[in-house]
Amino acid sequence: MKHTLSLLVALSLPLAAQAQRKPATAAKPAAAGNAIGAIKEADIKRDLFALAGDHFRGREGGTLDELKASVWLADQIRATGMLPAGDDGTYFQWFSLQRTRLTKSSTLRIGSHEIKLNEDGAVTAPTNANINAPLVYVGTGSPAELANVDVKGKAVAVQIAGAPTDGISYRRYVFGKFAGQAGELTKAGAVAVVFVSDPKQQALYDHWSHIYERGRYSLPGAASTRVVSTPPVIWLPAGAASWVQQAGQQLTANLQVESFQYPSVNIVAKMPGTDAQLKKEYVLFSTHQDHDGVRAPIAGDSIYNGADDNATGCAALLAIMRSFKQQPARRSALFVYQGSEERGLLGSTYFSAHPTVPQASIVAVLNAEMMGRNAPDSAALLGSTRPHMNSSDLVKTALAANQAGPKFKLDTEWDKPTHPEGWYFRSDHLPYARLGIPAIMYTSVLHVDYHTPRDEPQRIDYNKLLHMTQWMYLTGWAVANRTAPPAREPGFKLER
């Protein structure tokens, strides 16, 4: 890895040098008309097909594939004429991931069934555990079924049941079981909890159980890096239901955790403003370049290319850069591709805490997250509804830009705190919003191909993505040219 990093740094320096050799854009007293015409559907489509093709193997955060994609993006950014704004005169800001996972030598057995981790079943969080305990099956774990069962010192098997059948929120319900119901059972003394899918949930298991294979990620020093020994929570497929219910079985587990660091990267570029004073302030255009990498195959495809999530945002920012190069604004434009978003918003958490420009100089964050699917005339603007709205001023500007441009019908349900997906809390605007910086997110929301190998470039609605990009640009252009920065909402406080 050290040799690879040296190569990537060496590659980054020529990119920075070439950009710096270009003459700076001549200062202008004030921006004239916008350059929305520089945003072209053909450019967006070309960039997206390149980034979301199999060549980059799904751009998994913290892997060579993410780093290769990041170097490719830096080269495209240089070609737009944006200046490097990362560390040491490059386009890159490096940071470390802390990965905590079960070792490959960890073992799990129920009765005569050896469970190969991440093949036959998944442990939902890395934990050190050495268990040899009787397994008791408690049906769905209802109060009536638990009334006469002493779970103390036992492993408890539970049939997942009672979930809604409405697709995406069904997933959230099942994942909630892993925390809520498992927590209640461990408080009662269970030494392990085994959840068994029913046939309705098998597709959910096939789709999502792989996310636990990688373990847990965080920035070094975060509280989540601490390894604790807690009762393991295990998720089994529907096929295990028949034998898990058999009486008299023992659960034996030897789970061992390892933790180590390796690199990820943010990509940072800027277009200086034309106003002598306002150029010291920045409108930050945000997105993320990583996705899920290579995982368990679905219908024979194992590369999770993430065309909508989030090559759409990456291509959109390149298009917006071309517009700002053609016509700079009074304020400076800052473009940040945040690495390892899929690992838990790690790149944006790091950059917001260690920005390469003064934190106080960032007047607004416009975040692009999945902008190319679903109905062609609908979209969502997250951060536009209380309690998520931290700048009604910025929201008004974005709504006016929508009316002046694409005129999307705006779905406000996804921004509500009651929405089961909690979508507001799952993208890169969030760390900035928590710091009080006005922040909004442009999205066309989730779809059936979300986090599957079917999220491919040919499934993107490129005309819709063009209009989403134009909307985002028009908002940023307006913010970059007004004299006063967007006002911050007094008393802003998120619900969690």
From TrEMBL:
InterPro entries in UniProt: M28_fam, PA_dom_sf, Peptidase_M28
A GO molecular-function descriptor: metalloexopeptidase activity
Annotated Peptidase M28 domain residues: 266-472
Keywords: Signal
GO biological process, one term: proteolysis
Full protein name: M28 family peptidase
Signal sequence, start to end: 1-19
